[in-house]
Amino acid sequence: MSKLTLGSYPHLLGFEQLERLLERSAKAGNEGYPPYNIEQTSDFSYRITLAVAGFAEEDLSITIEDRQLVIRGRQRDDSEGRIFLHRGIAARQFQRMYVLADGVEVGEAIMENGLLHVDLTRAVPETVVQTINIRKG
């Protein structure tokens, strides 16, 4: 059995980039840490919330790389000179990636009570009707 691709549908023209995008997002390898929510806050806006307890603002970075929102966290290991009888809270790094559609813009990021909120907005697409003239050959 052959793999179905967007190119195998004759009415979907020019979607090769979308197919590559889907493959890239599947390979992103987002593990389960840190936990996160994605909510739709209006018809054209979203909010991603990550649980980043123990991270300071300077431990986090938010970048957009090739239409991907990348959120990274790296805690400094401050355990030198300390003796732990039990260590259940480890200094741990993470990387979360979210693929952004064309027209989706990243707004502000807010740190509140151990939660990082990242707001996104989607531009309302304009409906364009174009008439193509037919010439005699």
Describe it for me?
The protein has one helix at residues 16-26, and strands spanning 36-42, 45-51, 60-65, 68-73, 94-99, 104-112, 115-122. It is mainly beta. The protein has two domains: 1-30, no CATH class; 32-122, Sandwich (Immunoglobulin-like). The strands form two sheets. It has a four-stranded antiparallel beta sheet, with no helix packed on it.
Would you give the CATH topology of the largest domain?
Immunoglobulin-like
Structural class: mainly beta
Mean pLDDT: 86
- Helix-residue proportion: under 10%
CATH class assignment of the largest domain? Mainly Beta
Task: Output the number of helix runs.
Answer: 1
CA(first)-CA(last) distance: 43 Å
Strand/helix succession: HEEEEEEE
The fraction of residues assigned to DSSP E strands is: 35-45%
Question: Any idea what the CATH architecture of the largest domain is?
Answer: Sandwich
Q: Find the count of extended strands (DSSP E, 2+ residues).
A: 7
- Poorly predicted parts: none
Tell me the overall shape: elongated
Number of domains: 2
In order across it, which strands form the biggest sheet? 1-2-7-6
Feature tags:
mainly beta; 1 helix; single chain; elongated; 36% strand; 137 residues; Immunoglobulin-like; 3-stranded antiparallel sheet
